[in-house]
Design brief:
The chain is of the alpha+beta class. The chain is built from 2 helices and 4 strands; from the N terminus they run H-E-E-E-E-H.
Length: 74
């Protein structure tokens, strides 16, 4: 599992963020991007100026976040 420092060293310039919404997302949504083999970036579409948080796959799972709900494969 990558360390927190490793995750924040990963470049996000080519990251492709997707939204997970049950509806039209008119209020904004959580966004998620795979940024490495075991690394994810979690953002907020209502606050695109705020740097996304970064998590390992295990950390996402513990938090109850399933990348497949975003259309992303594990």
């Amino acid at each position: 599992m990558p360390t927190r420092n490793d995750l924040y060293r990963l470049d996000l310039s080519n990251a492709s963020f997707t939204k997970a919404c049950g509806g039209p997302c008119s209020e904004g949504c959580v966004t998620l991007a795979r940024i490495g083999d075991d690394a994810w970036a979690l953002g907020d579409s209502k606050r695109p100026d705020v740097e996304p948080l970064r998590f390992s796959t295990e950390e996402l799972s513990v938090a109850g976040i399933d990348p497949t709900r975003f259309g992303l494969a594990l």
